[in-house]
Structures are given as structure tokens and as C-alpha cells.
Amino acid sequence: MSLPLRRAPFPTSMAVQAAPAPLRAPRLIAVNSALAQTLGFSPEWLGSPEAVALFSGQWRDEAVQPVAQAYAGHQFGQFVPQLGDGRAHLLGVVSTAQGSTFDVQLKGSGPTPFSRRGDGLAALGPVLREYLVSESMAALGVPTTRALAAVLTGETVWRDRPLPGAILTRVAASHLRVGTFQYFAARQDSEALRFLCDLAIARHYPGAASAENPVRALFENVVAAQARLIAHWMSLGFVHGVMNTDNMAISGETIDYGPCAFLDAYRHDKVFSSIDRNGRYAYGNQPRLAGWNLARLAETLLPFFDPDEERALARAQEALGQFGTLYDTAWLERMRPKLGLMQSEAEDKTLIVRFLEILEEEKLDWTLSFRRLSRNEPLSEKPVSDALGGWLADWKTRRAREKALPAEQNRLMAQSNPAVIARNHRIAEAIDAAEHGDFEVFQRLLARLVRPFEDDADYETPPLPEEVVQATFCGT
Ligand code: AMP
Ligand code: MG
């Protein structure tokens, strides 16, 4: 089969040729055949040695010219002018029958000119974690990069202990990041910035091309996409964990699943990442930090907003000022259906926030509590507290004002409150088994995660106290 891949469209200033590391005995451990087929890979080909060669970075011919992309980024608030793909190779782009274009990238495929002191590799655990969580997010309807395949490299990766090495094949609408723009802004390369803007508009926001000022329209689109994305995360109790500007995609997709996690018991200030010592990227900080990242993006685009510096700044502030409003609206649009509400009333936000306060106070599980509400079940085995009792009564009154029948409200809740999410302790269990050569636990979990809205007494259960995962580690 001829590969559906084409070369990535970057000039050499933006992406350098880099060959993935040679491997003696790579082994395919997972392939996403549904996704592969939408990208034009045939099912027979997926079972061939060629597929293993492609997904392990061993494909060698003219058709595939892997590159490592340049980018910069603010990491925990500190600007690093050069990061780049230190352990990733962009194989090329594919277009679907529907006309969408996607990047196909290997992660963990060996050192590149951007590796700095890193080894360019990925351990099996983080690869499986990204596979599971990104596919879970996709099934939940959240814009996200996807997992196309995972291979075992057959080599050992050294972290705090020797671990099996692995490579993830990731599919993204693009790998343009806020940090990609920052890289060229820091070098005052306005030609490159213009190229990036045109590419981002063509790929992600074609409507912006016909705007009076296309770059401003691009920025407004990114602001709106991020507001919707973060609201979606928040409604699912998702904590990204490392929202550095290099990990924020221009497309509005969730990208770079490192120390990410879904909340178990709800805590507004919950942090999982072991490297996030100050809680910068805590659950409740995510909207604010997204706004901060977007301000960094705006800085790179100022000269395109208006030739006059002051007017350019005013334009940027206008667009950035929209983020809060767009986020609040998107958040309410996600949270109302979780309570079965289709109409909007002024007091809805208060009603929702009161429920969240009860969850936090009573240490209740985010996902299961909403699911139980939609099944009309008690939230826990404990007797109903006064606060919860009062809230349930107010909620009932509010629901009674809806035009929709209770059955319709229930259906809406069942479609808005997942039963099965990628719970930390389940991911840990799957990784642990895989490190011992057993991929069944991973496969079973994956099969459940792609059907999140079906009840499952086993997979929906929160961790037992001894199973709770408190910290996740960065994907390095
Ligand atoms: P992350 O925090 O995973 O988004 O990565 C931040 C930067 O570190 C990116 O430029 C990565 O390419 C780079 N990086 C992370 N892990 C490694 C590694 N093992 N080897 C080389 N570069 C890495
Ligand atoms: Mg990253």
C-alpha cells in the first residue's frame, strides 16, 4: 500500500530533518484501527510489518521525511526561548475523505537537535497513559489529539529505574502551539509568524481568512476555542497538569498528556503533578492560566493586529477580555445539562456552585456524583446532609420549571454525565500489568473508556482509600 502521508509543509527554519532512532526489535502493542481507517490506512496494512516499521520510526524511504518542530514556551511562568520536539518526530500529514488534515507524529522515537539534555525517549507508562486518556477524552467529545498506535521499542529507558521504552503515534489537527509563535516572536521573525498565521487559519479557522484583519480573527478564534475547551475540561473534572504555553495548541485541542488526571473526590485546588509544587496548574486555576497563556500568544501577534502599537494593544486586550465571558458561557452550557437543565435562568450558576461546594465539603466523587444524580440515586452511603437535602429540594423546584419532561431531562443528564472516565488508579493498574508483559488490563480499560456513557458497576467505582493516586509524574 502506498502511505497516505505527505510531507509536513514547513520551511527549514521551522522544522529540522531528524531520523528516529534505529531499533532492533520493535513490537506493536496497540493500534487504533477505527482512527487509522478514517486516515486512509487499510485494515490489512495495519497488521503488516510495514505498520510496525512506520509506528516505530523504522520506515526509510522518500515518502516519509521525519522532522522535529521548533518551539519555545513559558514553563511554569518562565520563558524558555528554545524547547522544540526533543523526543518527537513529525512523520507528515494526512487528509481524510472529509477534507480535514492531520499531523502524524511519533513521540518517544529518539533524540533530535532539540533534545537538550534529554534522551529523546518515552517509557511505556506515559505512552499508555496518553493513549488511554486521549482516547477517553475523544470519546467524551473533548477536542484532543488522538492515539493511533503504541509500540514497545524493545530497549530500556532509564528513569528512576529501568523501564521498557515505547513510542506513541499521535494524531493532531496540528502541532502548532502558543510556543511555536513565541519561538519566532522571540527572534523577531515576522515572516515566519506570518507563515504560521496563514497555516493556522487554513488548517483550523478558514473563516478567518476573509475577515477584515485575518490575524485578529485567528486570535479571536483561538480565544473562543480555548474558552470552550477549558470549560469542557472543568465539567469533566479534568486536570491537565502542565499548561505551559508549549502545551497549548492553536487548534483548541487538548495536547500533551503528561501528569494529567481526572478528579476523584472533588477539590477545587487539586493538583496531581509532582512537579507542580506551587499548584500553578491546579484544577481551579485552569481557566485563569489559559487566559494567561492567550495573553502570551497575543504578544506574539501584536504587530499584525495594528501597525499602531497602542491600537494593537487595545485590540489584543479587547479579544483577551472576551475570554472570561466566553468561558463563563461555555461553562454554564456544559454544567446545566449535567443537572438536566435546558433552559437558562439567572440563578443557575448559584445552584451549580452550591452543588460543587457540597461535593467538596462532603469529599464526594466528581464523576460518580453527577452520574448518580442522573440515575436518581443517593450520592453516597452516608445519610443526606442538611446542605444536600436543601439543595436537592431547590434543584427539584428548578427542574419543575423546565419545559422538557422529566424523562427528557434524565436523558440529557445521562448523555452529559459519563459513568466511565480514565481514573488514575485504573491507569496505574493497566501500566503496572503492562510493565509485567500483560496488556489485557490496558485493552479492557481502553474498551470501556471509549463507551463512557454506559453504566458500569465495576469501572465507574472510585478508588478505595488505599488505591487513590495522589501524584502523577511528568511524562518524561
Ligand atoms: P513536556 O513537559 O513533556 O511538554 O516537554 C517539554 C519539553 O521537554 C519539550 O521540548 C520536550 O520535547 C522536551 N522533552 C521532554 N522529555 C524529553 C526527553 N526524554 N528527551 C528529550 N526531550 C524531552
Ligand atoms: Mg510538551
Structural overview:
- With 476 residues, the protein is α+β, with helices and mostly antiparallel strands.
- It folds into three domains: 15-172, no CATH class; 187-246 and 274-334, no CATH class; 339-476, no CATH class.
- Helix content is 42%, strand content 13%.
- The protein has helices at residues 33-38, 43-46, 49-55, 124-139, 178-186, 190-204, 214-236, 286-305, 309-338, 348-361, 366-374, 386-400, 406-416, 424-435, 440-449, and strands at 15-17, 27-31, 67-69, 73-75, 78-80, 88-95, 101-107, 146-158, 162-172, 238-239, 261-262.
- The strands form four sheets. Strands 2-8-9-7-6 form a five-stranded antiparallel beta sheet, with helices on both faces. It has a two-stranded antiparallel sheet with strand order 1-3.
- Helix 5 packs antiparallel against helix 6, helix 5 crosses helix 8 (286-305) and helix 10 (348-361) runs antiparallel to helix 12.
- The protein starts with 14 loop residues before the first strand and ends in a 27-residue tail after the last helix.
- The mean pLDDT is 96.
- Bound molecules: adenosine monophosphate and magnesium ion (MG).
- Residues 83-87, 115, 118-121, 242, 246-247, 256, 258, 474-476 line the site of adenosine monophosphate (AMP).
